[in-house]
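Q: What would this complex look like in 3D?
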Amino acid sequence: MLSLLHFDVLPLAELEVGRHFYWHLGGLQLHGQVFMTSWFVIGLLLIASVLATRNMQRVPQGLQNFMEYVFEFVRDIAKNQLGEKEYRPWLPFVGTLFLFIFVSNWSGALLPWHVIEIPEGELAAPTGDINTTVALALLTSLAYFYAGFKKRGLGYFAKYIEPTPILLPIAILEDFTKPLSLSFRLFGNILADELVVAVLVLLVPLFVPLPVMMLGLFTSAIQALVFATLAAAYIHEALEGHGDEGHEEHA
Amino acid sequence: MFDFDATLPLMALQFLLLTFLLNAVFFKPVSKTIDERDGYIRTTKASSAEYLESAEKLAKQYQQELASSRKQAQQLIADAQAEAQETVDKQVAEAQMEAQQRREQVQKELDQQKQEAMQSLEGQVDVLSQQILDKLLGAQAA
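A: Here is my prediction, written as structure tokens for the whole assembly.
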């Protein structure tokens, strides 16, 4: 079995977890490889958007058509969760969440990042780093708190004791489990997919990892959808509140 | 794996920046375009419905006009036929009357000539009978 490990001299079959290409910025430590790939993703999104919207036609063609399809897809995510009335101001946030996570995941699954040599660690999907996913999840938490306070002021706190004060601890706990589950779900899925593919490539370099890679593409897309949908659902929950919603439904 | 550091806040800032940039270059223009297109389609649809309605109205009107002019034409034909028939009848009657008149005239002339002929014949009959009588009796008498 040990002889199999010799495969890790192959450039494509290296397995490095927990090693980072550190950048130091005035006493701060940064994961350089995450920023490099995230800048690629951001650049891709911005370039595609600018190219598509540079010369908008009434009858869409080519890239504009594609980007309008993308727009309608993310708009439907936001609209389905937030409702026709509320979704407009939250569309950029939810849509950017989906696009950034989706493009990050697929760049990790489709592009041979590992071929590019960096001094330490390896390039991978930005969403495979816990810092990215926690950042996105905390932003989601901030977003729904902001949504709740903006809509209902301090009355937002009423939702903690709305059905019954007995559930107060659980309601408070929810505010912690939401970002935790959001971030760990995404991080775990992407990293696990990367590791599974890497281990399979380590064992059988050709063809055998392909089905797992296909599965990885699928789960990556699903994770992006799940993250965006849940973020929109949390914002909707904060906007509506448990109690109001219940009364409306019973009425 | 779980080493948190300054990547987290910077990534959050970066993501917020991306949100604002994408809002400016993607979400706003695309939604504007789609709304404009929706509006264009709606107004075009409304105006085309209007056009359709007016076209239908025009078609109806033309059909009515067509029907009325067809009726008029039929009336005209019927009138013309009636007039022609009348003329024909009149002329036939006139011709018949003329023929009748001529026949009567001719008959009259014939009658007259016959009478004349009869009269002259009667005269001649008298003379001839006298002559015959003379001839028969003359020898006896003489």
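A: To summarize the key features: Chain B touches chain A through 32 residues (CB under 8 Å). Residues 21 and 106 of chain B are 123 Å apart (CA to CA).
Q: Very helpful, thank you.
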